[in-house]
Design goal:
The structure is a homodimer of 184-residue chains. With 184 residues, the first copy, chain A, is α+β, with helices and mostly antiparallel strands. Chain A has 2 domains: 140 residues, Dna Repair Protein Xrcc4, Chain: A, domain 1 (Beta Complex); 42 residues. A 7-stranded mixed β-barrel of chain A has the order 1-2-3-4-7-6-5. In chain A, a hairpin with a 2-residue loop joins strand 3 and strand 4. At the A-B interface, helix 3 of A face helix 3 of B.
């Protein structure tokens, strides 16, 4: 079972990975999958609506979270992590039109690697310093994963287009009927 | 420079490769690319609108065509090959609703391979025997090729959806205007 916890466009202030742009709109998704044996896994996914090949993911199991917790000094448990993460993303989103945003999202790639990893961070800037609230090391999607991701995009876009097609015909029929009725 | 010579849905009577279905609608595309040095290459492409991962291709250069010509006893040259190929495909398409079609398209996969090649043939059946008009050995798209193919599909579907969206809004506006005018 897969549950989408979060899916929204965010602005990354550093995305030197694939583009020369300083700012980039990127979609962040957080999915929770529950297996029959009550194992829960989080999947963090970054995609770019304007770049079909842009796909970075990080699966986070409960065990992964334990090392993340120790590494980054987190004080919450796995169950509350997704909501806390979403709260931070929302803070970034709230301030994205501000001239002097306090919370920023960064995505930086290892310069030594052509492909591979990228670090996604939520950074607060105060008068004194940059505070790193969370840093996740995302892995670039393989050819196979990008292929599967694009097939899923294509399927949902097809469904959307069909729905739009139906709505168009219904609206047109309805308005034409009203029109011919009033013209009589 | 790329020129699409043919793109149409055809019915394959044998497609045991990926499905258990006996008949399958498959899109056949023939593209001609011309390079600055006047090199011409043909690309034969088979895709399936219902299966995003289905991609078989065969690039045919002038040299490739020479061996194909010898192998299959063709009497035409490279320049007239595309049109002859299209004529055969059209013959198949004309008869696809017939109960007893004379021309059929076959796609057979090597049973010993999970992935790899498939032979695409145009077969005429007369009272005496099956006549093989053309047999092309297509290569299954790699992860990278399928990825690129899906990205192209996604881009064109996005454009189609945007055009539909615009047309919907225009039609709706236009009809609403007419309606409010007649109601006055």
């Amino acid at each position: 079972k897969l549950k989408m916890l979060y899916s929204d466009l965010v602005i990354l202030t550093q995305k030197p990975c694939h583009t020369s742009k300083k700012k980039a709109n990127v979609r962040v998704m957080i999915e929770l999958s529950t297996t029959p044996v009550h194992r829960r896994d989080l999947l963090v996914k970054l995609t770019d609506d304007t770049d079909p090949y842009f796909l970075f993911t990080l699966p986070i199991s409960e065990e992964d979270f334990q090392s993340l917790k120790v590494q980054q000094g987190l004080l919450i448990d796995f169950a509350s992590f997704p909501q806390k993460f979403i709260d931070l993303l929302n803070l970034c989103n709230l301030e994205q039109d501000s001239d002097n945003p306090r919370f920023l999202l960064h995505l930086t790639c290892q310069s030594t690697m052509v492909e591979g990893c990228a670090t996604f961070s939520i950074v607060e800037t105060n008068a004194f310093k940059h505070l790193n609230h969370l840093s996740l090391r995302l892995i670039q999607g393989s050819e196979k994963e990008v292929k599967e991701y694009l097939a899923a995009c294509l399927a949902s876009l097809k469904a959307e287009k069909q729905a739009l097609d139906r709505k168009f015909k219904e609206t047109e029929d309805d308005l034409c009927r009203q029109l011919s009725y009033t013209q009589q």
